Amino acid sequence: MSRPTTPGPGAGPGATPAVHLRGLRRTFGTRHVLDGVDLDIARGEFVALLGASGTGKTTLLRILGGLDRADAGTVLVPPVRTVVFQEPRLVPSQRVLANVTLGLPRGAASRETGVRALAEVGLDRHADAWPATLSGGEAQRVALARALVREPQLLLLDEPFAALDALTRLRMQDLVGELVRKHRPAVLLVTHDVEEAIRLADRVAVLRDGALVTDETVEVARPRDSADPAFAALRRRLLADLGVTLPEPAGV
């Protein structure tokens, strides 16, 4: 069953969490997709959410982002929230910089802010490019710049690397980790990838049957290496919580 969580590494003593969920419920027809979820995320804390397809991960993210509603429970979130989806969702008729500053007041200040955001993701020279000329990784970096240019207090990542090739995916993971440490929003990453969750997050939660069955601090030294025994042990525990049992390592 889910349990209340406490603010993690991003919070000082007695800090108010950026995200506070208690008894969150969401039902579609007769199906309880979320059934009493409790979760806190502190400012500056990175939480990864794992779960099989259809377990409610994206529904939870959409509720936090204001794209869906809860049927019951307490949902406290900060006012400035942004979402990066699996697809970049760029406006094809707008150049890269216009996509980054979409919704911001027009003028030189917003343009300068947008160029700085593009520089952070290594794409300032592409400000006047059209989205159709970008690679998949470049397009996703533009989406990340668009999310961060607003200095969100809560950054929501819905499997943002799933459509990328393996090498680009690793580079994007490094970039996201670097930018999150710089901007320090609260972060919720929805992912199917256990290694990705361990590599990036301060805490990893597992959602199953509508409830959080695991909420574990990642006590693995950075930079994180999958060959590290602590990394491997946590991966085995999380896979077991997901219902995947691996053979015992040789010599055990």
UniProtKB/TrEMBL annotation:
<keyword id="KW-0813">Transport</keyword>
<dbReference type="GO" id="GO:0005524">
    <property type="term" value="F:ATP binding"/>
</dbReference>
<keyword id="KW-0547">Nucleotide-binding</keyword>
<keyword id="KW-1278">Translocase</keyword>
<dbReference type="InterPro" id="IPR027417">
    <property type="entry name" value="P-loop_NTPase"/>
</dbReference>
<dbReference type="InterPro" id="IPR003593">
    <property type="entry name" value="AAA+_ATPase"/>
</dbReference>
<dbReference type="InterPro" id="IPR050166">
    <property type="entry name" value="ABC_transporter_ATP-bind"/>
</dbReference>
<feature type="domain" description="ABC transporter">
    <location>
        <begin position="19"/>
        <end position="234"/>
    </location>
</feature>
<keyword id="KW-0472">Membrane</keyword>
<dbReference type="InterPro" id="IPR017871">
    <property type="entry name" value="ABC_transporter-like_CS"/>
</dbReference>
<dbReference type="GO" id="GO:0016887">
    <property type="term" value="F:ATP hydrolysis activity"/>
</dbReference>
<protein>
    <submittedName>
        <fullName>Aliphatic sulfonates import ATP-binding protein SsuB 1</fullName>
    </submittedName>
</protein>
<dbReference type="Pfam" id="PF00005">
    <property type="entry name" value="ABC_tran"/>
</dbReference>
<dbReference type="InterPro" id="IPR003439">
    <property type="entry name" value="ABC_transporter-like_ATP-bd"/>
</dbReference>
<keyword id="KW-1003">Cell membrane</keyword>
<keyword id="KW-0067">ATP-binding</keyword>
